[in-house]
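Hello forum,

I keep getting stuck at the same step: I have a sequence, I want structure tokens, and every attempt I make locally crashes halfway through. Rather than fight my setup again tonight, could one of you with a working pipeline run this one for me? It's a single chain of 560 residues.
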Amino acid sequence: MTSDHFAAAELARLCAAKGVKHAVISPGSRSAPLVIAFNKQEGMECLQVIDERSAAFFALGMAQQLHAPVALICTSGSAVLNYGPAIAEAFYQRIPLLVITADRPEEWVDQGEGQAIRQHGVLALHMKRSVQLPRITSDELARWHCGRLINEAIDTTLLPVPGPVHVNVPFAEPLYGTTEEIGTSRFIAPVMTEAFVLPDHARWLIGQLSACKKVMVLAGQGIWSDGLRKQLLQLAALPQVTIHTEATSNLDETAFITCIDRVIEAVSERNEKDLRPDLLITFGGAVVSKRIKTLLRKWKPAQHWNIDAGQRHYDTYQSLSHDIAVSPEIFFAQLAPSVVPNESIYGEVWKMMDESTRGKHNRIVADAPFCDLTVFNTLNDRIPGDSAVHLANSTPARYAQLFDRVRGHRWFGNRGTSGIDGCTSTAVGAAFATKQITTLITGDTAFCYDSNAFWNNHLSSQLKVIVIDNGGGNIFRYIDGPDKDPEMLPWFEAPHTRSVEQLVKSYGLPYIHANDHASLETGLDKLYTNHDKPAVLHITTDALTSPKVLRDYFNQLRTS
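Reply #2:
Ran it on my machine without issues. Output:
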């Protein structure tokens, strides 16, 4: 049994055939053929999330963890537009989402018909591909065309690099009919391929790496294989190479510089000539650190190689010289074993800087009062090892970069667009997909903004939420500019009057509060005990103390 609309039935059938196992569906009438087809499809798990914006981020969190496409289904009209923020995030973070939107017949657009908007291609700017399926599929040619478009759309979510794809499906009434038999289109199987660096080019690249005295490798956001980690460790052992990573790079090794924002505070006019790279190699997604971006744009390395299978010509540091269109896994496997050491001390200079700032960091944190900085220090020590940690934007994503990460956590964050709008929903989806301990560290503003994440029947008891409440968008008390005008500051900081406690309890979730070191330790013990629902630890810190401590922190790191 399936929908009697051919396009809906084929979407469900081909999704299942190509390994799409989950569909996140928001309610509506025009999408009835899709709901029927996907619910009746063997091997498909359908999950209802009412709020389309939250549903899209929920699906994003699932796809992020499963490394597989998740179907996202909604009705026509403004429901589609609510997918926008998550689609942009998936596009820049390269997460495979198959966005399937029901539509009115195109003939009714701009004719006063309800829920009929200009929907064809409405999300195209942040889609890898947008297709419109034919409304009438009564003949073999139309069905062949429809099936080919569906095959192409599903495969494009993963190839050549992952990302979101939009399938818009116009349906004419009646919508609720079912059938036992419906014609099927051809299954087109994708064949996986992998590019590599051609031998002559590889020899030249190896020669450059072996001869250059100052090579910096900078890793962006991603989850990487053990093979790539080993290749990077091999490079890090070379005296001419320094490797810099962040929390969301998920490459935490003692041989790497893992706290970029901390170590570069020791860069000065006296030593920057020794620290400036001649060759910069970048790979992965977004880099959080604004400091390293500013510094590299100032330094302008003579060569910048960006490694990206999608060949995006990313010139983040305004120095791009070589765009290398292979995966980082292939690139470093091809090159790293053949690079030879030279007489440089570049790697050692960076390690000395790292050790110096680590000592200062430990002394500052030990002497600091209870504030956001000391809270993050405790969280870094106490969150269970080998678990997933989701960092909301923007304060949590920045604080996490200041601490050595040695407990085997996997770090995630919506750094494609760096918005606060779906951080909680993403973590909710991720926890549902993995069924493993997942910790979300968020601020009070982001938490309140995305509170509909808990309006959801698929909440995992393994989700632990830590809300650091400093009275609003506290980052604006630290950023130069907004902090200097008390009259304008509320427009940026946006202090809210919502009660986090009442909000949490309105969803029937366990609530724990902490406001000092002792209650924080006790609160973490309670948070990580067994609950039958997601638990929330609400930590309140002083709005004036935290930015002052952070400003003093960086000032003290700069002192010799």
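The domain at 199-353 is CATH 3.40.50.1220 (Rossmann fold). If your local run keeps crashing, start a new thread with the error log.
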